[in-house]
Design a protein that fits this description.
Elements: E1 4-17, E2 20-33, E3 37-41, H1 48-55, E4 63-68, E5 71-72, H2 78-88, E6 89-92, H3 104-114, H4 119-132, H5 148-160, E7 166-170, H6 178-194, E8 198-203, H7 206-209, E9 214-219, E10 222-228
Helix pairs in contact: 3-4, 3-5, 4-5, 5-6
């Protein structure tokens, strides 16, 4: 059985800048498999966030082939990509992107409402997701009363509540101190061990790199190194 989650061939991504074009990605070839815990790493401007956005269907390739979860992302409509994201992907952002008028429970519940999951099942899935990130005691709190670490844990619960095949994280620890960063990464490693979901990070944070099982290095829009990390590393 094919366990390929992402398959990218000869990817080129350009953005219009003034009367010219900026090449953000070029000659990118990449395969990601089920259950991976991989980082797209490199300095600012290396193309890692653009690559993450192409994988998530937020950007379209200029040239090349991009298949995600069996779908050709270079040959799908905006609505088809939105449906794939809603049903099969989870996103963790640097800035949390929580809705301030909603409680922790309601923020985490939102993807299930969008996917028309019945209320009784929503209650069970949301409670499990909140418990998995250690926030059961804060389920009725609103984001304005949470710490940065608690906000990011809420965002993680929201990303995994519908048990997606692919979870994409863009600099998820950038706004956190070292203690909270390691706490967040330990939660994500544990979730990766318990779920079949693939985790893909875009980061230049060295605190994250110690947890990754594979690192794909980008420089000037090209993959310059791709290495598996044999030693499993987590910190308490």
């Amino acid at each position: 059985m094919d366990n390929t989650v992402v398959s990218i061939t000869n990817l080129l991504k350009k953005f219009p800048v003034g009367g010219d074009f900026f090449t953000a990605l070029k000659d990118v070839n990449l395969v990601l498999n089920e259950g991976e815990f991989v980082g797209l790493v490199g300095p600012s401007g290396s193309g890692k966030t653009t690559l993450l956005n192409v994988i998530g269907g937020l950007d379209s390739p200029t040239e090349g082939s991009v298949h995600v979860l069996g779908r050709a992302m270079d040959n799908t409509s905006h609505n088809e990509r939105a449906s794939l994201r809603r049903k099969n992907m989870g996103f963790i952002f640097q800035s949390y992107n929580l809705l301030p008028v909603y409680t922790v429970f309601e923020n985490v519940e939102l993807p299930l409402i969008l996917n028309n999951i019945e209320p009784e099942k929503r209650e069970k899935l949301v409670s499990e997701a909140i418990e998995s990130v250690g926030l059961s005691h804060r389920r009725n709190a609103k984001p304005t009363t949470l710490s940065g670490g608690e906000c990011q844990r809420t965002a993680i619960a929201r990303a995994i509540v519908h048990q997606p095949a692919l979870i994409l994280a863009d600099e998820p620890t950038a706004n956190l101190d070292a203690e909270n960063s390691h706490h967040i990464m330990n939660i994500l490693v544990e979730l990766n061990n318990n779920l079949t979901s693939s985790f893909v990070f875009a980061t230049h944070d060295e605190k994250i790199m110690g947890y990754l099982k594979r690192m794909v290095y980008l420089e000037d829009g090209k993959i310059v190194k791709d290495e598996s990390i044999n030693k499993k590393s987590t910190r308490k």
